[in-house]
Amino acid sequence: MTIAFPQPDEAVLARRKEIVEGLGRLVASEALIVTEDERRAFETDGLTAYRRMPLAVVLPSTTEEVSAIMRFCHDHGVKVVPRGAGTSLCGGAIPQEDAIVLGVAKMNRVLDVSFENRTARVQSGITNLGISQAVGYEGFFYAPDPSSQLACTIAGNIAMNSGGAHCLKYGVTTNNLLGVTMVLLDGTVVEIGGEHLDAPGYDLLGLICGSEGQLGVVTEAVVRILRAAEGARPALFGFSSVEDAGACVAAIIGAGIIPVALEYMDKPAIQICEAFAHAGYPLDVEAMLIVEVEGSDAEIDDMLRRIVAIAEPFRPKTMKVSQSEAESAAIWKGRKSAFGATGRVADYICMDGTIPTGQLPYVLNRIDEIVKSYGLGVANVFHAGDGNLHPLVMFNTNVPGEMEKAEKAGEDILKLCVEVGGCLTGEHGVGIEKRDLMTYQFNATDLEQQMRVRGVFDPRWLLNPAKVFPLEGRLAA
Amino acid sequence: MTTHTPRDEQDASIIIREAADKGMLLNVSGNGTKAAMGRPNQTDASISSSAMSGITLYEPSELVISARSGTPVLEVMRVLAAKGQELPFEPMDYRALLGTKGEPTIGAVAAMNLSGPRRIMAGAARDSLIGVRFVNGRGDVVKSGGRVMKNVTGLDLVKLMAGSWGTLGFLTEVTFKVLPKQERMATLAIRGLDDKQAIQALSMALGSPFDVNGAAHVPDRDRRGGTTLIRLEGFRVSVDYRMNEMKRLLKRFRFMDLLEGVGAEALWQSVRDATLLTDHGNRAVWRVSTAPTKGPELVAQVAQGLDAQWFYDWGGGLIWISTPIDGDAGASVLREATRTFGGHATLVRAPAEIRSTLDVFEPQPEALMTLSRGIKASFDPAGILNPGRMYAGI
Ligand SMILES: Cc1cc2nc3c(=O)[nH]c(=O)nc-3n(C[C@H](O)[C@H](O)[C@H](O)COP(=O)(O)OP(=O)(O)OC[C@H]3O[C@@H](n4cnc5c(N)ncnc54)[C@H](O)[C@@H]3O)c2cc1C
Ligand SMILES: Cc1cc2nc3c(=O)[nH]c(=O)nc-3n(C[C@H](O)[C@H](O)[C@H](O)COP(=O)(O)OP(=O)(O)OC[C@H]3O[C@@H](n4cnc5c(N)ncnc54)[C@H](O)[C@@H]3O)c2cc1C
After folding, report:
1. Rounded to an integer, what distance in angstroms lies between the CA atom of residue A320 and that of residue B225?
2. Which of A75, A370, A397, B223 is 20 to 30 Å from A123 by CA-CA measure?
3. Which of the two residues, A2 and A84, has the higher pLDDT score?
4. CB of A195 within 8 A of CB of B291?
5. Which residues in chain B touch residue A253, judged by CB atoms under 8 angstroms apart?
6. B148–A356: do the CB atoms touch at under 8 Å?
7. A341-386: per-residue pLDDT in tens?
8. Chain A residue at shortest CA distance from B163
9. Which domain, by its residues, includes B133?
């Protein structure tokens, strides 16, 4: 266990009974979770190596209830950890013993859809996929598509500014969010943005997006919905070197083509995924690209022809342009099973750094060296178009010390990302996981400015504390 | 009045720190082509980015460009064009509308969150702005974001700086994500629709799978009809196909033309820069943002109370309205309309006397103003940077 948690506030722990009773007066009894057994479901998120039992869990159903809970916590000095579905991979929704968890998962309704204005107003606990399903009957969808979209909520997406495979073309959450209803710590309800573009004044919406539950609790959101393309089809290329694959990515983009997805897999990832999904991936290559384009059949044919011509000078060993729905599904099945398939062969931690794409070959070679120096293995699957890496550092939990080694290797990899001009996290967030690395990317002045802004919303640091900023840092704010 | 023209970030930091110590108010500018926008402010000195020019990083295959804030927009565009790329958000040029001269700077594009017709698809400047360096009101040099497109490390101060009109910090360097310039542009023009029908047509076009990236409606003088514009861009084959589908989709609107080439480009430029309204030389100009389907109703309400001229961009969601400059230049009527239909109105052009007595930006609820004041103080505790330019007290 290498990530530190702050000491819980004994005075708050001692008042647990009183706090629970107070909350009990604000919500129906089934919305308040107090027994140890039931609280256990909330003691961790997607970063399961760490867990803390929360003081209590509240699952309100309305913005008014959220407001009442927040005002109560504000008045009683109780910390609040906002939570969606708990799929955060950086420990963003992990509780503390002296904090309550405020979960929005019950607030999962679609409130209003306007196809003419291309917007949907939803409660924030709706799942990402739930939004697309609600508007799918008219051919519309909500674009940012994290791999966790079946489970994760729009609240979590907003807090993490989540992205997915299609972000190269459609952008991430912040580019698809028009408005929020948010409850401030003192219970004040604010509306920011709405069905229109570009709210007046400071870009508070942009600030809230990616703020990891530090500024308020989002209860509703207005998102852009888009009409889906007529069709989409992938092609698969296998290369005999990392350099060729990297150069091919640069050449595609340099030629003015922005594919809807551009995914990279290295040799270990190809082998792991192929063994699981039998997708027909080439096993004799060092790197593989999946390039997907959208449009009508004629447009897709035209675009894939261009892409094949661009790829040829890089001597691909395999070139497979999908000819059918079934082939497309197979190609994606392999890629989409990467996390699950890796989980079957080893324990792993999934890193999430971003680099300038020109540094791809250098960084991949360095990652390999770093991980090997700890005696571990690594598989790489990631969004190549935007340089968002996801090295899966593999280890064996049953070997004492291996997890700590994996964490160390992960840390070295993230530092490497910063060194080459990238950043610590492209989509998973800082949470507790990368909190102590923030000083590698930002100097003290940069961090202070961020913390001062945070302090405007929450001067006492009661909202999701011990996340994002180095523990000792907050004292300066 | 002293005008400081720092050569670099360090210089700027010293100037601003000194000003903060003495409580000297600073006007923040690029080349001042938009000095006539916002609330007029009274300052003791000014700081301009005009001596801080030059592109600092350009990687075409990574779709990223960084430039010092005083770099002319024109230079950025020229450098991008040489590699077949462009700023995707199509920033507008206010010079014709405001009657100003000089070279607009890239820092001001970020500071004002400028964007044009392609905003409906490509987003505003803030959506492409991925990194900034700036000097805050304490004189501290701060960076936020970086040079990679995906970055969720810490609070997104880049977004706060975008559209802050120089009130939070003096930008020294900005980094934008860029996109390839499209091979072909074609515009479908439908004639004779009234506002409501036009917005219906635009909504149908934007709700289709054919990637519309420009959608405007310009009513005729007599308001009996107008020209409705739908723009498609992309590879040749793709534009041909989508244009045919678009015509089929909208066939019930009948009277259609296909516009291409220089004329069509000039037309979109006049939509972008709102020069369609400049012939009303001495009138006020407002920029209203609302839900597209609310546009025609909002305009109808405004036109009942005022002698207004207008056109629509962003599928109906952006309405440029000109009003007479007497009295409050239409402020009360416009604010009433945005209250009724949702959205917000910004006074873009009006004599300084009017801009100093009115809210230039849509007034915000007290809770949001409190947050905005807090944010201002967290960047600029002495309140020396562009005081009052956006809101009184900010
Ligand atoms: C298998 C798997 C694949 C994943 N793939 C991706 C991917 O492709 N792209 C990607 O970006 N992420 C991915 N993730 C990470 C995770 O799914 C996202 O970060 C997601 O947005 C979290 O949503 P959630 O509802 O689970 O939020 P939670 O985990 O519950 O919370 C996440 C953060 O949001 C805050 N929060 C929650 N609700 C609110 C609220 N109402 N108001 C304010 N703050 C709130 C929490 O405090 C916390 O900081 C993946 C995770 C898993 C397990
Ligand atoms: C040939 C040409 C074509 C153009 N085409 C386009 C186009 O296609 N798209 C487009 O968007 N625009 C275009 N423009 C216009 C341009 O985007 C803006 O008008 C320009 O950026 C304004 O710059 P300025 O320096 O004159 O602003 P100023 O009037 O000096 O400043 C405007 C505002 O920004 C703030 N500000 C200025 N500099 C800073 C700074 N360094 N830090 C913090 N705040 C600052 C000021 O305080 C003020 O509030 C074009 C310009 C030219 C010359």
Report:
1. 52
2. A75
3. A84
4. yes
5. 61-63, 180
6. yes
7. 999 999 999 999 999 999 999 999 999 999 999 999 999 998 888 8
8. A202
9. 2-180
The mean pLDDT value for B376-390 works out to 96
CATH number at residue B247: 3.30.70.260
Strands (E) in A251-384, as ranges, are 261-266, 287-295, 318-321, 347-350, 353-354, 377-383
Element (H, E) at A146: none
Place of tokens 């917005």: B199
- To test the pocket of ligand 2, the residue of B8, B25, B92 to mutate (highest count of ligand atoms within 8 Å of its CB) is B92
Q: Is the CB of B46 under 6 A from ligand 2?
A: no
- Following DSSP, what letter does each residue of A180-219 receive, concatenated? EEEE-TTS-EEEEE-SSSS-SSS-HHHHHTT-TTSS-EEE
**Contact call for B368 and A302, based on CB within 8 A:** no
Torsion angle, alpha carbons of B199, B203, B206, B207, to 10: -170
pLDDT tier at B282, thresholds 50, 70, 90: confident
Do B266 and B232 share a structural domain? yes
Residues 6+ apart with CB under 8 A from A306: A255, A257, B235
Query: Is A82 a pocket residue for ligand 1 (Cβ < 6 Å)?
Result: yes
The pTM score is: 0.94
- The tens digit of pLDDT for each residue in A260-301 reads 999 999 999 999 999 999 999 999 999 999 999 999 999 999
Distances (CA, A) of A370 to A373, A392, A401, B303: 5, 13, 17, 68
CA–CA dist B147, B129 (Å, integer): 9
**How many domains are there within chain B?**
3
Closest Cα to residue A102, out of A127, A141, A71, A133?
A: A71
CA A436 distance to own-chain centroid:
19
Ligand 1 centroid–CA A212 distance in Å is 9
Find the CB nearest A426 among B151, B159, B290: B151
Total number of residues shown for chain A = 477
Q: Quick one: B129 and B264 in the same domain?
A: no
B75 lines ligand 2 (CB under 6 A): no
Q: Domain A346-463 falls in which CATH fold?
A: Alpha-Beta Plaits (3.30.70)
